[in-house]
Design a protein that fits this description.
It is built from four helices and ten strands; from the N terminus they run H-E-E-E-E-E-H-E-H-E-E-E-H-E. The protein is α+β, with helices and mostly antiparallel strands. A six-stranded mixed sheet has the order 1-4-5-6-7-10, sandwiched between helices. A hairpin with a 3-residue loop joins strand 4 and strand 5 (56-63). The longest helix is centred in the middle third of the chain and has 17 residues, at 71-87.
C-alpha cells in the first residue's frame, strides 16, 4: 500500500461512517493532492482528507508510516488548523492525524495542547470518528479487501 492508497482508505472509511448521519446532513468529503483549503494567510493548504458540513470543517493528515507519529505532523496540522480556522470564522474547524502506528509521547503532548485528534487505523473494517463531540463507530464490510489488505481498528488517543 502506498500513502495515497492509505489516504483513500481513510476517506472511504469516513464516508462510510457519515453517510447516513442525520446530525451531519450530507457532508462533503474530499481528499487527494487537489484538495486545497485556503487559509487566512492566502495560502491554500493541501489537506489529505477533509469533511465539511454546514457548521463544521474537519481536516485530517494521514500518515502511512512504519514508525510512530512524532511531533512534526502534529505541529504541521496545528499550523494549518490555525490558518484555516481564521479563514472560516462561521465554521467549527478541527483537525486530526490518522496513522498506522500509535503516536509518540511528544506527539500526544502537542496534540493535547493544540486540540488535535490522534487516530490509529489498525484494521480496514472498523473505525471510530469524533465530530464535534459526537462519536461515529462502524464496521465497513463494503470495502474491498484488495484495497485495504495491508491497512492495519482505530484506537483513539483523545487529547
Amino acid at each position: 500500500m502506498r500513502s495515497s492508497d492509505y489516504e483513500r482508505l481513510v476517506r472511504k472509511l469516513i464516508s462510510e461512517l457519515t453517510r447516513n448521519s442525520e446530525a451531519l446532513g450530507c457532508p462533503l468529503i474530499s481528499g487527494g493532492r487537489k484538495n486545497k483549503i485556503p487559509g487566512e494567510s492566502g495560502f491554500s493548504h493541501q489537506i489529505d482528507v477533509s469533511l465539511k458540513t454546514n457548521r463544521a470543517l474537519l481536516l485530517f493528515e494521514c500518515k502511512y508510516w512504519a514508525k510512530p507519529v512524532d511531533a512534526e505532523p502534529v505541529l504541521v496540522i496545528a499550523s494549518r488548523l490555525q490558518d484555516v480556522r481564521r479563514a472560516n470564522p462561521g465554521l467549527e474547524v478541527e483537525a486530526g492525524v490518522v496513522s498506522t502506528k500509535p503516536p509518540t509521547s511528544g506527539a500526544r503532548v502537542l496534540a493535547r495542547y493544540f486540540g488535535i485528534q490522534l487516530d490509529v487505523v489498525s484494521t480496514p473494517r472498523e473505525y471510530a470518528l469524533r465530530i464535534r463531540e459526537r462519536f461515529f463507530i462502524g464496521r465497513s464490510e463494503s470495502l474491498p479487501v484488495s484495497f485495504v489488505e495491508r491497512a492495519t481498528v482505530v484506537k483513539r488517543d483523545v487529547p
